[in-house]
Amino acid sequence: MKKPMITLAALLFSGALTATATAQQPGNPATPQQNAPQTQTMQTPKNLPDASEFSDADLDAFIATQKEMAGIQQTYSRKLQASKDEPKKAMKVQQEAQQKMVKAVEENGLELERYNQIVRLAQHDADFRATLQEKL
Q1: Is the pTM here over 0.90, yes or no?
Q2: Which of the four pLDDT bands, split at 50, 70 and 90, describes residue 77?
Q3: How distant is the alpha carbon of residue 106 from its chain centre?
Q4: DSSP-derived secondary structure for 64-96
Q5: CA-to-CA distance for 87 and 83, rounded, in angstroms?
Q6: Could you tell me which residues come within 8 angstroms of residue 58 by beta carbon, excluding any fewer than 6 positions away?
Q7: How much of the chain exceeds pLDDT 70, in percent?
Q8: Looking at beta carbons, which pairs linking 51-60 to residues 24 or more positions away fall under 8 Å?
Q9: Among 5, 39, 50, 106, which residue's Cβ finds the most Cβ atoms within 10 Å?
Q10: Are 21 and 112 in contact (CB under 8 A)?
């Protein structure tokens, strides 16, 4: 019972950070408001992909990435906690974490955009999220 909760937490954490990393890519203008955490009245975006658009290879790469993300999350959560009184250092730690996460996505054979599509769909589609959790 504990494993799915940890998995979901890692999924949501990685989604939040990779959304920031995506916003930093050239040609992808984003305002800070677009990267702000969503409120409890979260609406389902209209441009979500269909689960059938993702191949088994995409999902396997996503799962491999998620496993790496859990380790990155642990490591950098501790580092962020240790630098909470030093905003410049904390920002540097967060940027380093984002770079590690982007690297993990790419090393597992996914494009960052594809990874983010899977994250967004998993956040809004309970059946798709359950499918991913089964693969873990």
Answers
A1: no
A2: very high
A3: 13
A4: HHHHHHHHHHHHHHHHHHHTTT-HHHHHHHHHH
A5: 7
A6: 110, 114, 118
A7: 67
A8: 51/121, 51/125, 51/127, 51/128, 51/131, 53/117, 54/117, 54/118, 54/121, 57/109, 58/110, 58/114, 58/118, 59/118, 59/131, 59/132, 59/135, 60/135
A9: 106
A10: yes
14 vs 72: CA distance, rounded Å? 9
Give me 78's structure tokens: 């501790």
pLDDT tier at 44, thresholds 50, 70, 90: low
Model confidence band, residue 12 (pLDDT cutoffs 50, 70, 90) = very low
Contact between 116 and 15 under an 8 Å Cβ cutoff? The reply is: yes
Confidence band for 43, pLDDT divided at 50, 70 and 90: low
Residues with Cβ within 8 Å of residue 136, at least 6 apart in sequence: 3, 7, 63, 66, 67
- Using alpha carbons, select from 15, 4, 7, 46 the residue that is nearest to residue 120: 15
Residue 132 sits at φ, ψ, to 5 deg, of -65, -40
Q: Please name which of 81, 72, 88 lies closest in space to residue 21, comparing C-alpha atoms.
A: 72
Residue 131 CB neighbours (<10 A) = 14
